[in-house]
Design goal:
Number of domains: 1
Oligomer: single chain
Low-confidence stretches: 126-141
Helix content: 40-55%
Structural class: alpha/beta
CATH superfamily: Response regulator
Shape: globular
CATH architecture: 3-Layer(aba) Sandwich
Distance between the termini: 20 Å
Radius of gyration: 13 Å
Number of strands: 5
């Protein structure tokens, strides 16, 4: 599963990359430090999944999620936020996010979530499906 990570914190990006390398099914194809850069890279590379920070300058994670879901094919989007608050979750879902994880839980919840998403994405790829669903798919943590 091809993934792009988008977060304005370089240390978090590095740490998350190291964590995701533990899952051989996840291939990090790019990392971006802003929403604008993340959108550009997603258009170029067409990943299966984009993992985005909710709070970023220039284009926040919710705006980015909305833009990503307008693409054809639209990637799956996981929004990461500092707090596990209902209004943050609802905002992410209203923009089309497939999942939401509070950053304090990211290391315990992200890998199992990606395994579930991988099981869904790979059969689509094998069938040659080009467009993925843009609705929430029951991946909410």
């Amino acid at each position: 599963m091809r993934a792009i990570l988008v977060d304005d914190d370089p240390l978090f990006l590095k740490t998350l990359t190291e964590q995701l390398k533990r899952n051989p099914a996840v291939q990090i194809v790019a990392r971006a430090g802003s929403g604008v850069e993340g959108l550009r890279l997603t258009r170029e590379m067409q990943p299966d999944i984009v993992i985005v920070d909710q709070a970023m300058p220039d284009m926040n994670g919710l705006e980015l999620t909305h833009e990503l879901k307008m693409l054809e094919p639209a990637p799956r989007v996981v929004v990461l936020a500092l707090y596990d608050e209902p209004e943050y979750y609802e905002g992410a879902m209203s923009m089309g996010a497939d999942a939401y994880i509070a950053k304090p839980n990211v290391y315990s919840e992200l890998l199992p979530l990606l395994r579930r998403m991988h099981r869904d994405i790979m059969p689509q790829r094998a069938r040659g499906a080009g467009v993925r669903s843009t609705h929430a798919l029951g991946y909410h943590n």
